[in-house]
Amino acid sequence: MSLAKLPLPAQLRGVRAMATAAPRPALSGLSAAAKSKAEKISQDWKGTSATGANTKNFIGGEFVESKTDKWIDVVDPASQTLLTRVPETTPAEFEQAVDAASQAYKTWSRTSVLTRQRFVMDLQHQLRQNGDAIATSIVLEQGKTYADAQGDLLRGLQVVESATNIPTALLGDTIEVSKDMDTSTRRLPLGVCASIAPFNFPAMIPLWTIPMALATGNTLILKPSERDPGAAMIISELCQRAGLPAGVLNVVHGTVPTVNAICDHPSIKAISFVGGDRAGKHIYERGRASGKRVQANLGAKNHAVLMPDANKNHALNSILGAAFGAAGQRCMAISVAVLVGTAQSWLPELIERAKKLKVNQGFEQGADFGPVISPASKERITGLIASAEEEGGIIHLDGRGYEVPAFPDGNWIGPTIIEATTTMRCYREEIFGPVLTVITADTLDDALAIINENKYGNGTAIFTQSGATARKFEREVEVGQVGINVPIPVPLPMFSWSGNKASFLGDVPFYGPGGVNFYTQNKTTTALWKAEDAIGNKASVDMPTHH
Ligand code: NAD
């Protein structure tokens, strides 16, 4: 279906609504501590601002002001204070970015793998040195707590560190297939690649793709989320400081027009997308239609199964942390708890513990989680809570109307726990907010049936002290990432991401060995060098017989 015919997605409606609602002027709504941090971000970094100036495009090694007439306000979700304005990169600027990446590819793809390894090593050093700035930008634009923002960076940094192994990862195979005849494979880059990121991990997701694409010899066009591009801009500048030649990484901005330009451009060979179902399906189909390799990580509904023999304290704390951390805006958030048998009697304690969680601006002491990303997102989430009420669910803990006195305009939603059934909207749809839906099941088999019927397959977890129960669950559950007494089983990058079912479109997953495969193509060469032709052999004087 043509995208023009689809209604505007909720988050873009939100952006428009925010833009017309006129954000609070720069710096005016920030705490004193946040204000000085915002000023420092604007002073120290060329591509981003937290004091109301414009975010730049990064093209051919330069941070350049866009000539667009379409700007998107980025505001602090705790106070609606203007931080920066993001351009909808113009078609001409987009073309310049692709040109820069195409030119740079000619030399970058031929640099030695040790040069590219050195870049990745220097990038990890730069990221460690400047982690505070990246985490600060994330708190301001995205709203998560400072500790959580550091985790966002750390999980990306782990991918950078794993990419320092690139010489070994790119080793090919050779075998002598016949006398004096060798067949070998070489892993070669694809060309110009593109990466389209979501709002919820502004550092981690760009860092899933930048090191893997560049270390394998590709050049990259990155389009960060238009809602929080600051971390990506700082990371781009750090790539430059780490010695990355001009044009190897370029950053463009915007929404549907920029994304469609990526999908359609014939010089772009591959797209890595992380985000919601609707955009992901569109990008996958449009990108594939123009012959591109596409990997698309999509939405999720992750269930935690609580067995009666679980270590109760560990299980309840793990479920709460995974449900409410980052205000539930993680693709691996536990959004459904399945209480099995007598574990159902633990529900009151789960609720009591959830009540103690503190919601506040991300720099404030004691904040467990922050606001949700936008007023539109808040409206969507509170609408889903209301739908549970209408459909007969029980709202045990209601986060609607949560107030933070120092930040009256924030997109606050307190921890919410709903007892529901699998037919209700709050169960069927991804909520992406601080809402835990509780479902009851009589047996492990019933819990497995619930999870396996769910369309998504990103993550799941079981809490039990029985190895046999855990093993049966792990073997039979149809979900790609399984935790046993581990609430958020995101594989570290010696493995690859392995979400499945409706949580993934494509064939080759992100980072780890999958990342190397995604960003490379094999060339297989068969060569014959006859031993008798070696220079220095004696000439044959016999009558040729053609044998
Ligand atoms: P989103 O789909 O709204 O946006 C992601 C990217 O796509 C952004 O860069 C945005 O500009 C672009 N985009 C949005 N709508 C578009 C459209 N109609 N056409 C073309 N491009 C469009 O996602 P989000 O709200 O930023 O992120 C949250 C979603 O991402 C959740 O569904 C979450 O589960 C998912 N997510 C998945 C993973 C994973 O690994 N599976 C990780 C993080 C987030």
UniProtKB/TrEMBL annotation:
Species: Polyporus arcularius HHB13444
Keyword NAD: yes
Signal peptide: none
This protein's name: methylmalonate-semialdehyde dehydrogenase (CoA acylating)
UniProt cross-references to InterPro entries, sorted A to Z: Ald_DH/histidinol_DH, Ald_DH_C, Ald_DH_CS_CYS, Ald_DH_N, Aldehyde_DH_dom, MeMal-semiAld_DH
Broad enzyme group: oxidoreductase
This enzyme's EC code(s): 1.2.1.27
Keywords: NAD, Oxidoreductase
Gene3D superfamilies per the UniProt record, alphabetical: Aldehyde Dehydrogenase, Chain A, domain 1, Aldehyde Dehydrogenase, Chain A, domain 2
Segments forming a coiled coil: none
Superkingdom in the source lineage: Eukaryota
